[in-house]
Amino acid sequence: MKELGHELCGVDYAAAFEKWSDNVNRLSFWAGFGPAIWHINRKIVSSAETFRPEILWVDKGNYVFPETLEKVRAACGARLVHYTPDPAFVGHRTRHFVRGVPLYDLVVTTKGYEEARYAELGPKRILYQLPSFDRDVHFPVTLSPEERGEFDSDLVFVGTYAKGRERFLRPLVDAGLDLAIWGSEWHRCTDRALKKKARFESLAGPRYRAALSGARIGLGILSPLWPDKSTTRSLEIPACGTFLLAERTDEHQQLFEEGREAEFFSTEAELVEKARFFLDHDALRTKVARAGRERCERSGYSSLDRVRQALAALGSEGPCATHPEGAVRSRQTPQLNP
After folding, report:
1. DSSP H or E run through 290
2. Dihedral of the CA atoms 2, 17, 117, 318 (nearest 10)?
3. What is residue 328's predicted lDDT score, i.e. its pLDDT?
4. Half-sphere exposure of residue 85, counting CA atoms within 13 Å on the CB side?
5. Which residues of the chain fall below pLDDT 70?
6. Strands 327-330 and 125-128
């Protein structure tokens, strides 16, 4: 947003929760109210009254009260935008969010399977975007000898453990391939052979980039908990210059041309076969990885591009821009930009 020339005033969710104990916060999350949540909502209103923004951009506003949105609009006439990269009606749903949806001028979702749920609640506009990568974080790097020693692998999977991930990961271990697994909750995995591949660390920033850059193949295995067809990892792997081998879905095939910019699989056998093939063909793997990286830049997959698209859909940057990877829905017009 700053790169696009906007002046910002932020309200930090995390800072509010850091003032209270884990037990208090857990109770607040369960109940939907508590000292940190009340503080956040008061802070949003007071900041709006002082800063008087043209837009209130709420990022995953599970605990933003509808009354807070109404107070902000009354105080300064701000247009209201909600964005979340996560499922909003499955797992993360809160009553505050559901009651607030009709008040938003624009809701942005990366989950196509939830568009109908949003539409039922009646926000003015719905923008469906596929995921994005961060240009400041996800880019190719050359690892130091020390980093190479820690992050070198044939295949890497980065993600939280969830029951069902074994389906695709275990066959790679059985095939004798060099697999590195990074992420939280892997102590819950009961598969001993797979658990040996886990590093038990949730990665972010430079270490996440190093883990992707240190692998010859980055795995795009989707969560068994949600009906996702792509995730941010689907973009972050090729953005780091790493070869993407991901589950075959219509969204992945929309993001990248199969066989030229990424490779996909539908079965365990196809995954193992393609992993072996591309590990044995360095030049072809490098060519596909480079094309995937170029596609990320060329097709507007960065977070900067996504924010620009969202603000254009809201109308703050003039006429609504073309959205090659999504669509805008409006009460006034059934479809503005396919």
Report:
1. helix 282-298
2. -10
3. 42
4. 12
5. 316-338
6. antiparallel
